[in-house]
Structure formats: structure tokens, C-alpha cells
Amino acid sequence: MSRPSVSPLLQLNVAMVFVGTSGVLGRFVPVPAPVAIWWRASIAAALLIAFCLFKGYSFKLRNNKQTKTILLSAVLMTAHWITYFYALKLSSVAIGMLAIFTYPAMTTLLEPLVLKKPFVPRHLLLGVLVIYGVYLLAPSFDLADGATLGLALGLLSALIYALRNLTVKKEIADVQGSVVMVYQTVIASIILLPIWWLFEAVPTAEAMPYLLGLGLLTTAIGHTLFLACFRFFSVSTVSLLSCIQPIYGILLGVIFFEEIPEWSAVGGGALILAAVAIESVAVGRKVS
């Protein structure tokens, strides 16, 4: 694993800013969730293919094991997107956000088992701190009216996301992030092709700017930069540091919608920032 430096830390933060645009862009996109996911994946695939061809990146994989890993990670990513969207639909943004950000704690438990790495107690403690911080960020938390199913789907989505990240790290961390995302978005588009028979999949002119933003900013740029970070950090470290994403999402909400967070949200953000700062300092010490 390459040694981390200031540049990878900055890259991860930039990635989280772009990934955090999903909240702003996805909030008002006037299409069903599966349709939004298909267009998001298809637009990102087209843009990434053009970028990889321009840069001269090779799409060739080393062996059949990498090919199978790419396929598995793409299926997991698609399942993560679908379960997360439906978790939000069945519950609320607050419950969905709390559920999905259990994935750092899940990752700290799974990484030693999947990647045969030593368990780091600090990571689990910081994961719990992040979960509580996200809980405080949530404007309300109510499991009434069937939202329990939404919470369960959100937890399932978090588990799938953790497994996808570990899968990428284990076998294909040496493949260009843009190339990995090409495969993943193309496969996701193929998996979701049935939406053309199940929904009205042709977007309106009103929906296109949001879908283009999700494809370009959130997926093509954000997720590509995020994948590239696995070259420099452990999966647990990337998961913990990426938990700054909801804070960037809240800041974007303040800028674009003038949504001022409550004091409890400020407290939750402070806890998340503390966890990120502790892990950043720990990572920095390994370099010096």
C-alpha cells in the first residue's frame, strides 16, 4: 500500500464534496428512483469512457479473478444504490442517513476478516462516534409508520457498501479508478435495463440537469476520486474519513437552499469532525 500524504487526504475531501452533491441534486429530481439510478449510471459511463479513451487508459484486466471481482463489485454497487434509495423512500432522509453511515463500523469489523488485516480498536470506537454524530445530525428520528423497514434497508445498504469497498480493495485497487467506474456503471446500466419496461424512463427537460449532475459530479468525478483513495489508505480509514460527507452535504444545503442546521446538528457535525481529525492525525503519524 502506498504511503498516504497530504495529497491523498485532500483528494478524499474533494471526492466527498462531489459525492455530497447527491443530496442537493437528488432532492428534486422528478423521476422514480430506479430511473434516476439508471440515468446516473449511464451518463457517468458515457463520460468516463470518453475520459479513459482521451487519457489512453487500458480497459484490459490482468486475469479472470479481476474480471469476476469487477462484476461482483458492480452488482454490489447497484444493490447499494437501490436499497439506499428505497430506504429513503420508506423512512426519511434522517433515518436513511443514520443507517447508511453505520458502514464505517461495519467495515472495521469486516476488514480484518476479509483482508486478513489486524483489528484496530480505534477504528471501531471512531465508527461508533460517527454513528452518534450522524444521529445528532438527523432533524428527527421516528420509527413509526413502517419506517422500521426503511431502517432495515438502510442497514442492508450500508453492509453492501462496506462489502463493495472491501471487494475493490482486495483485488482491483491497482486498476485505474476511472476504468473501475466504467465497468461498474456499464454493468449497473445493464442490470437496470428493465426500468424501460416498468417505468416511464424518458426524462423531462426539467429532470435532465439534475441527472447530468448526478452522472458527472456525483458519480463520474466523486466516486472515481473515492475509489482512487483505496491505493493510499486502508478501507476502514477511507470509510471513517469519508464520513465528513454529510457535513459537506449540509453546507451545500445552506448555500443552495438556505437551510440552517439546528444546534444538535452542529454538535453532531463536531463529533464527526473530531473522528475524522483523530484518524487524519493517526494516518499522518505513520508517514512521519
TrEMBL record:
Task: Report the InterPro entries cross-referenced here.
Answer: EamA_dom, EmrE-like
**Membrane-spanning intervals of the chain:** 12-31, 37-57, 69-87, 93-115, 124-141, 147-167, 179-199, 211-230, 237-257, 263-283
* Record keyword Cell wall biogenesis/degradation present: no
Which UniProt key words apply to this protein?
Answer: Membrane, Transmembrane, Transmembrane helix
**Residues of the EamA domain:** 13-137, 149-278
The identity of this protein, by name, is Drug/metabolite transporter (DMT)-like permease
